[in-house]
């Protein structure tokens, strides 16, 4: 059972060949572990070289941090860096999931029940058309990145629901920045001037400015 004041640690500098089963014996010497999750890329599934670690007791987390922070070197020559979750990199704020290939008969509560075993859910919404019919997809938002990642690991591709054309899709939802970049990539692709993969915000701004200047020159020259 986790104590109310338990601390969640972010552990960096983990060799990418080590998984939860390899790390658990290292951390168990400081106390009973409530949760240990290796963090993986939301698109490729590749190991990011870091993890979240929560002990049942606050004292265990403090002991682990004191003993391991820049003290213990793992195979591969890297030194553990356990720090409080609040100091973890900003990309770990991702906790909203897109869920696709749902049965169109599933309501918000049905989807919530599917994801509840993996953590505390802040939001769960099935997407619907103007007539109220389900689009067969939903957004689910957890309280933490680790909970969201655990749901992806367990559910993505795990089953095919009634009425769905393929297996369940569970992935991190795009951020606003990613959606904006994709829209710009689509515009640039239609213009046929830049590769959508290589295009960045700055390049797109420079391109639109150049097009505008070219148009002004042509008008002045006529």
Automatic annotation (TrEMBL):
InterPro entries given in the database record: Nucleotide-bd_a/b_plait_sf, RBD_domain_sf, RRM_dom
Ranges where the RRM domain occurs: 7-80, 95-175
Task: List the molecular function annotations (GO) for this entry.
Answer: RNA binding
Keyword RNA-binding recorded? yes
Q: Which CDD domains match?
A: RRM2_CELF3_4_5_6
Supply the Pfam families for this chain.
RRM_1
Carries keyword RNA-binding?
yes
- UniProt keyword list: Repeat, RNA-binding
Name the SUPFAM superfamilies on file.
RNA-binding domain, RBD
Q: Which domain of life is it from?
A: Eukaryota
Q: PANTHER family, from UniProt?
A: RNA BINDING PROTEIN
Protein name, per record: RRM domain-containing protein
Q: What does the organism's lineage look like at the top?
A: Eukaryota, Metazoa, Chordata, Craniata, Vertebrata
């Amino acid at each position: 059972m986790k104590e109310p004041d338990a601390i969640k640690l972010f552990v960096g500098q983990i060799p990418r060949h080590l998984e939860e089963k390899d790390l658990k014996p290292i951390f168990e010497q400081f106390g009973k572990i409530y949760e240990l999750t290796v963090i993986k890329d939301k698109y490729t599934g590749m190991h990011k070289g870091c993890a979240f670690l929560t002990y049942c007791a606050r004292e265990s987390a403090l002991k682990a941090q004191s003993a391991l922070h820049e003290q213990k070197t793992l195979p591969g020559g890297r030194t553990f860096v356990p720090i409080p979750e609040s100091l973890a990199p900003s990309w770990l704020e991702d906790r909203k999931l897109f869920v696709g290939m749902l049965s169109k008969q599933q309501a918000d509560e049905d989807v919530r029940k599917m994801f509840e075993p993996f953590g505390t859910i802040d939001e769960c919404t099935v997407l619907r058309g103007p007539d109220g019919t389900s689009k067969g997809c939903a957004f689910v938002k957890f309280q933490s990145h680790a909970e969201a990642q655990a749901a992806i690991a367990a559910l993505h591709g795990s089953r095919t629901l009634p009425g769905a054309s393929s297996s369940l899709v569970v992935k991190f939802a795009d951020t606003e920045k990613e959606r904006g970049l994709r829209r710009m990539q689509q515009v640039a692709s239609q213009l046929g001037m830049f590769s959508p993969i290589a295009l960045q915000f700055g390049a797109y701004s420079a391109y639109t400015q150049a097009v505008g200047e070219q148009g002004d020159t042509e008008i002045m020259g006529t």
